[in-house]
């Protein structure tokens, strides 16, 4: 199981890089959805023996439904609604942001090596993966212009927090679930995008012209 | 405890269900009055709830009372305000405010850092749609910024909370996030994780508090939100975030990372005061000016908390004063905004003449907030300053004084421009005359601040000292 978990961690970090480099929102949303689905595997792979099977299954299924399916679906809806398909002008270019992302991952691995892990039975890559993903998410939110890409960045950040939460699952099971509350933000963001779009449509229309329906 | 947490929540649900927008503001008043009664009850006999996860201690008492007083005044102000704005649907506004009140109470009561985090997140989620009350492009932009910046902060705070939980998971650790247990286990916590946790929690809750350089959402949100929401944001939510940082500092101190944490707070506090000074001078919008004043006062709180001891007691006193006076200013500014229909300083003159109640209140609020005697903030700032010098931070003390002086001059120029002169020729909105309905709540808050300045009961003084003692620091 350990090698399988290792593969998952490596894939999660690779998706970080993919999202940093992609300009097409549709591909980026798909990648983040895949990352969410991968994270759903982790509770199953890392669960200690003594934890309730039901609890682990619920956590895994919840993560799959929310991170892998629900939020990506909402985002695609918002994308269509607001008719954006590309991140046209990122504040930081793709190559520099990839370089910054790489630097962050290196630092995350170096930093996590210096921190003592009180629960050593967990996977050694966990903290590094979590911190790299958080860093990638922050980078995305700060460096992108389009609201949909910013929400994607927030989702990536949240995925990083979720990975870290798995370290606590043995002794504080419900704290991990609290992290799912973060997804509420993501949902509200999507609402915001749609409202924003509707608003723009209306305000570009001169209200003086809205007098046709009059007796 | 049910009165301060469950009652507002229940009334909030009722507000969402109620079909008539005319009666809804009354729910706000009922929630505020019930909350104040609950706070009085809890002050007299603090209980515990939820296996000790909720309990009222000295720091919680101060913040809970601040929130309650501010909310009561704002609810009274809302009666007339929402009647004047009868054209707007207020379902979300009233319901959201009541849920917010409940969440703020939980923050004040929470002894468990996980619950504290959840409550802080709820405050963020509920206020974002409230900023969008005006339903125009500017308020939408403001609420988007608020939501984006604060949600990043809240996510980082969760990571910090996780770090803290992990620090308690070593052999012999408490495996807990209850503040009392963490403090008791102090030295057995894993110190590198505690330090990392503090950095993330400072960034996270510092964002909610609006400390520089994490304050970017503040001017927009305060500028666009209705005046009474501005009052609750600047006096209630920021105070709640301040309390969250105080709780975290308590744990860091017990784990032996107190010196590092205090230095960071002191530096961020001074930076906030400096940035506020830079942006207040030359500000052209009087509501945004109040936002920078809030950045300044959060800086003062951080300095007080960072120095600790007597200055810490001053910081808790100042949190109360800041809440009361910010209420005066935002409510009066809201009335001025209603009457003139603009927030631009260049187009507003003669508020003293046009608004014979709110104009003078705005002026008096300015003197109070900039620390002029005999109002409360003068004495709390003096206490903090004395603590700063007594603990040997002479440079910090001098900078503190310089920043306060710059801000006094900068704000003074703006406020005097707004209140003096002849209102003829300024834009005017009909039907927005000044009345006791919108002036009396602000006047009550101002009177409370004045009373705290003229006579501070020994029991309150002891309360502030006790609150500061939980956080620790030099005697």
Task: Give a written overview of the molecule.
The complex is a heterodimer of chains A (215) and B (475). Chain A is mostly helical and 215 residues long. Chain A has one domain. Chain A has 8 helices and no strands. The longest helix of chain A is centred in the first third of the chain and has 30 residues. Chain A is globular, with a radius of gyration of 20 Å. The C terminus of chain A is likely disordered. With 475 residues, chain B is mostly helical. Chain B has one domain. Helices cover 76% and strands 1% of the residues of chain B. In chain B, strands 1-2 form a two-stranded antiparallel sheet. In chain B, a hairpin with a 4-residue loop joins strand 1 and strand 2. The radius of gyration of chain B is 21 Å and the shape is globular. The two termini of chain B are 33 Å apart. The mean pLDDT of chain B is 90. The chains are: A mainly alpha (215), B mainly alpha (475). The interface between A and B is large, with 38 and 36 residues.
Number of helices of chain B: 19
Fraction of residues of chain A in helices? Answer: over 70%
Radius of gyration of chain B: 21 Å
Mean pLDDT of chain B: 90
Please count the helical segments of chain A.
8
Strand content of chain A: under 5%
Main structural class of chain A: mainly alpha
Low-confidence stretches of chain B: none
Determine the mean pLDDT of chain A. Answer: 79
User: How are helices and strands ordered from N to C of chain A?
Assistant: HHHHHHHH
Major pleated sheet of chain B: 2 strands, antiparallel
Low-pLDDT parts of chain A are 202-215
Features:
heterodimer, A: 215 residues, mainly alpha, 8 helices, globular, disordered C terminus, B: 475 residues, two-stranded antiparallel ribbon, 19 helices, 2 strands
């Amino acid at each position: 199981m350990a090698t399988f978990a290792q593969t998952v961690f490596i894939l999660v970090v690779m998706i970080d890089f993919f999202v940093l480099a992609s300009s097409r929102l549709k591909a980026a949303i798909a990648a983040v959805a895949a990352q969410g689905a991968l994270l759903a595997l982790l509770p199953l792979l890392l669960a200690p023996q003594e934890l309730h099977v039901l609890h682990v299954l619920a956590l895994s299924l919840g993560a799959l439904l929310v991170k892998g399916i629900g939020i990506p679906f909402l985002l695609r809806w918002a994308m269509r609604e607001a008719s954006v398909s590309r991140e046209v002008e990122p504040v930081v270019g793709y190559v520099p942001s990839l370089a910054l992302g790489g630097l962050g991952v290196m630092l995350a691995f170096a930093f996590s090596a210096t921190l003592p892990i009180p629960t050593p039975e967990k996977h050694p890559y966990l903290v590094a993966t979590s911190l790299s993903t958080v860093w990638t998410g922050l980078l995305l939110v700060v460096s992108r212009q389009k609201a949909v890409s910013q929400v994607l960045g927030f989702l990536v950040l949240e995925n990083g927090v979720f990975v870290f939460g798995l370290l606590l699952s043995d002794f504080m099971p419900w704290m991990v679930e609290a992290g799912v509350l973060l997804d509420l933000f993501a949902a509200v963001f999507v609402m915001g995008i749609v409202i924003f779009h509707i608003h723009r449509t209306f305000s570009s229309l001169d209200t003086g012209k809205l007098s046709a329906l009059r007796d | 405890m049910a009165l301060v947490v469950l009652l507002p929540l229940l009334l909030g649900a009722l507000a969402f269900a109620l079909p008539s927008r005319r009666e809804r503001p009354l729910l706000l008043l009922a929630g505020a009055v019930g909350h104040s009664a609950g706070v009085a009850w809890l002050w007299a006999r603090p209980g515990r709830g939820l296996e000790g996860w909720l309990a009222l201690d000295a720091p919680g008492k101060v913040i809970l009372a601040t929130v309650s007083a501010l909310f009561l005044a704002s609810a009274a102000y809302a009666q007339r305000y929402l009647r004047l704005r009868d054209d707007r649907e207020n379902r979300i506004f009233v319901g959201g405010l009541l849920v917010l009140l409940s969440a703020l109470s939980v923050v004040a009561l929470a002894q468990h850092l996980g619950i504290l985090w959840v409550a802080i997140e709820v405050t963020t989620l509920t206020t974002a749609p409230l900023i969008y009350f005006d339903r125009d492009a500017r308020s939408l932009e403001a609420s988007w910024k608020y939501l984006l910046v604060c949600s990043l902060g809240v996510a980082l705070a969760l990571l910090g909370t996780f770090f803290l939980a992990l620090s308690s998971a070593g052999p012999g650790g408490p495996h807990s996030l209850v503040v009392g247990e963490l403090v008791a286990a102090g030295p057995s916590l894993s110190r590198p994780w505690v330090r990392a946790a503090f950095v993330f929690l400072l960034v996270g809750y510092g964002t909610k508090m609006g400390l520089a350089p994490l304050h970017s959402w503040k001017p927009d949100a305060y500028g666009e939100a209705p005046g009474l929401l501005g009052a609750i944001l600047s006096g209630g939510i920021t105070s709640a975030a301040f309390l969250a940082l105080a709780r975290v500092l308590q744990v860091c101190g017990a784990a032996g990372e107190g010196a590092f944490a205090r230095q960071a707070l002191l530096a961020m506090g001074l930076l906030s005061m400096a940035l506020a000074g830079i942006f207040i001078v030359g500000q052209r919008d009087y509501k945004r000016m109040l936002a920078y004043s809030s950045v300044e006062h959060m800086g003062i709180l951080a300095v007080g908390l960072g120095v600790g001891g007597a200055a810490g007691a001053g910081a808790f006193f100042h949190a109360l004063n800041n809440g009361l006076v910010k209420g005066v200013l935002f409510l009066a500014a809201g009335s001025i905004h209603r009457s003139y229909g603009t927030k631009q300083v260049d187009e507003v003159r003669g508020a003293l003449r046009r608004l014979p109640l709110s104009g003078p209140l705005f002026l008096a609020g300015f003197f109070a907030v900039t620390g002029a005697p005999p109002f409360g903030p003068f004495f709390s700032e003096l206490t903090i300053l004395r603590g700063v010098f007594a603990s040997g931070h002479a440079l910090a003390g001098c900078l503190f004084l310089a920043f306060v002086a710059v801000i006094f001059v900068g704000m003074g120029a703006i406020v005097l421009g707004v209140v003096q002169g002849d209102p003829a020729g300024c834009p005017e909105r009909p039907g927005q005359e000044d009345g006791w309905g919108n002036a009396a709540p602000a006047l009550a808050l101002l009177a409370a601040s004045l009373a705290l300045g003229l006579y501070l009961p020994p029991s309150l003084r002891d309360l502030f000292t006790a609150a500061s003692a939980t956080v620790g620091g030099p005697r």
